[in-house]
Design goal:
Protein Binding, DinI Protein, Chain A, two-stranded parallel sheet, 4% strand
Amino acid sequence: MTDTKKTNGSTPKNYVRYGIIAAIVIAVALIGVFALRGCSGEKTISADDAISEVSPDAVNGADLRMAVVRMDAIQTDAAALKDLRKQKENYENKLRAELEKQQKALEKEKAEIEKSQDVLSRDALQRRVVEYQGKVTKLQRDLTERAQSIDASFQKALAKIQENHLDPIIEAIIAKKNLSLVIDGRFARTGGNVANLDITNDVINALNKKVSSVKMETPKGF
């Protein structure tokens, strides 16, 4: 893991009042700032003075060795990540099947309650309706918690793959190629076909050799 805006029904008179209040707040804030400046005795310096100790040296083109890695392609094509998504989908399918089963049971109970309106007393009918609503609420809460648990287990396994396998591989490739900078290809724009710039396939092939699957922890409720 939406903002909503409500139409303000304030009259022009209210806008004037709010404008006056805002002006007072700003004036008070400015008075506070000036008062602090006057009391603190701090002196201000120019930007040039502030960066006086920054070195003028910068990397040269001859020294800079770059590469691009497309993380989206790794997420899609690496064997371990494919397997991890499949595990997540299996849990989601189980949850979906259980939801359909529970929904059918609740629909049946709702139909029985509707049929019994003319038979049960008002109090008895009210009790059944309250019990039914309680079951619906509990089902919604349980399904939400279990869906969140699936995602939490997935994210934990994903982090494990990155920390234990993906990051070390990328670092090893950086060392082997003596790279100065690696950019995520999703945010990079390159011109022309630059040889050896994209290391995505190298990363995927190495990751597939290192690990083919990582088991998700069993989510709560399964």
